[in-house]
């Protein structure tokens, strides 16, 4: 298992300000120091790609670090209400020594690290679609079998309206995901299009989550009815790989030619 360690405890959305340092050790290797937070699989015993700033040229570089390397300490983050199927870790790096062969080739600056986020943002779009579909299907099944006022929920006009809203959201997300997959396959996907997919799909999944959770009434908050689990996971998706606001800033910069990040 592998981790991707970009986020720092004090730098999330402004990950470009990362403080983890990579110092040449004078013998062809590197010494890494710093801290990371929220790193999926960061304590799994495998490898972690650590993004660190080269103390010589000030640029961000990527290093493959074995999690068993002396100085690599990882603590699993507990108490999470979302994405409980995978752990995230808080990591400290204290004089972690790696050889030059641990440095990722083709990475010379932060922009190269950010290239990875384009692919992962597309993945988040598809994940949001998966969660939304599952919640829609659960709500539809519930509406068919649960009876109130002498007939199934699904036979009430307002419930049908809400089913139609969810169908609309899910179909819109499907259409966007397929369009982006076609652009990807043709090698024509722009970074901003990946951001727009993530922005639209996690927002759409959140709207589906609200409707589906409500449609199940009190049972909607019970984990056994599934919707609540997806609801919680969608909240995590909405935040990682760049929050909704960060995607909006990327889109706004592209639309106006002006950066409003800082
Ligand atoms: C479950 C989970 C898994 C994760 N996995 C990984 C991982 O494997 N590897 C990794 O490197 N990171 C990972 N992350 C970290 C994730 O990428 C960050 O949480 C995310 O980038 C947001 O950073 P933050 O939590 O520090 O929030 P902050 O940056 O503190 O943001 C807090 C709020 O302020 C808003 N905000 C921030 N800046 C601005 C601005 N300029 N204008 C307007 N609003 C702004 C944000 O949108 C957000 O709503 C994970 C996070 C979670 C929750």
Structural description of this entry:
The structure is a single chain. The protein has helices spanning 110-145, 157-185, 191-215, 227-239, 244-256; strands at residues 2-5, 21-24, 30-40, 47-54, 60-66, 72-76, 88-98, 147-148, 151-152. It is of the alpha+beta class and 262 residues long. The chain folds into two domains: 2-102, Butyryl-CoA Dehydrogenase, subunit A, domain 2; 110-256, Butyryl-CoA Dehydrogenase, subunit A, domain 3 (Up-down Bundle), CATH 1.20.140. The strands form two sheets. Strands 1, 2, 3, 4, 5, 6 and 7 form a seven-stranded mixed beta sheet that branches. Strands 8-9 form a two-stranded antiparallel sheet. The protein is elongated. The mean pLDDT is 97. Bound molecules: flavin-adenine dinucleotide (FAD).
Which helices and strands appear, and what pairs or packs with what?
Layout: E1 2-5, E2 21-24, E3 30-40, E4 47-54, E5 60-66, E6 72-76, E7 88-98, H1 110-145, E8 147-148, E9 151-152, H2 157-185, H3 191-215, H4 227-239, H5 244-256
Parallel strand pairs: 1-4, 2-4
Antiparallel strand pairs: 2-3, 3-7, 4-5, 6-7, 8-9
Helix pairs in contact: 1-2, 1-3, 1-4, 2-3, 3-4, 3-5
The structure holds flavin-adenine dinucleotide.
């Amino acid at each position: 298992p592998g981790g991707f360690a970009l986020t720092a405890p004090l730098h999330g959305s402004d990950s470009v300000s990362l403080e983890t340092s990579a110092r040449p050790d004078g013998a062809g290797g590197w010494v890494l120091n710093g801290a990371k937070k929220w790193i999926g699989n960061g304590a799994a015993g495998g490898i972690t790609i650590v993004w660190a700033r080269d103390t010589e040229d000030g640029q961000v570089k990527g290093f493959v670090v074995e999690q068993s390397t002396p100085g690599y300490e990882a603590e699993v983050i507990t108490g999470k209400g979302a994405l409980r199927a995978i752990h995230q870790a808080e990591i400290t790096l204290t004089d972690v020594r790696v050889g030059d062969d641990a440095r990722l080739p083709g990475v010379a600056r932060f922009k190269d690290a950010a290239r990875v986020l384009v692919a992962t943002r597309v993945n988040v779009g598809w994940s949001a679609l998966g969660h939304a579909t599952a919640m829609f299907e659960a709500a539809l099944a519930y509406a068919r079998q649960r009876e109130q006022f002498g007939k199934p929920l699904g036979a009430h006009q307002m419930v049908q309206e809400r089913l139609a809203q969810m169908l609309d959201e899910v179909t819109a997300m499907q259409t966007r995901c397929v369009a982006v997959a076609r652009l990807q396959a043709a090698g024509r996907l722009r970074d901003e299009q990946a951001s727009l997919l993530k922005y639209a799909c996690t927002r759409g999944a959140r709207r589906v989550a609200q409707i589906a959770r409500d449609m199940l009434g009190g049972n909607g908050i019970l984990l056994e009815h599934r919707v609540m689990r997806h609801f919680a996971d969608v909240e995590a998706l909405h935040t990682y790989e760049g929050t909704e606001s960060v995607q909006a800033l990327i889109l706004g910069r592209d639309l106006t030619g002006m950066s409003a990040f800082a």
